[in-house]
Amino acid sequence: MNDPLAGRDWIVGSGPTIADLSCCGYLYYPEPFGFDRKDWPHIDAWLSRIAALPGWKHPYELMPGNPSDRA
Fold first, then answer.
1. Is residue 34 part of a domain?
2. CATH number where 14 lies
3. Tally of domains within the chain
4. φ and ψ of 31, to 5 deg
5. Do residues 66 and 60 touch, judged by C-beta distance below 8 A?
6. Residue 48 belongs to what domain range?
7. Crossing angle for the helix pair 41-51 and 18-27, nearest 10 degrees?
8. Global pTM?
């Protein structure tokens, strides 16, 4: 996903769509995969744009507990 996001703000079109929301959820859970956003600058910028959308809540804010509680 990093390369396709180079030079564009969203996966499809000029604004966020269901494609963005469908794909981003997996990337907010780096613990199981060792995913470090700084290694993927276009994904990092895209996730930051999503997080800046009105009403956005990080998945961990919507679930009880802490990721370490689920390890």
1. yes
2. 1.20.1050.10
3. 1
4. -55, -50
5. yes
6. 1-62
7. 110
8. 0.78
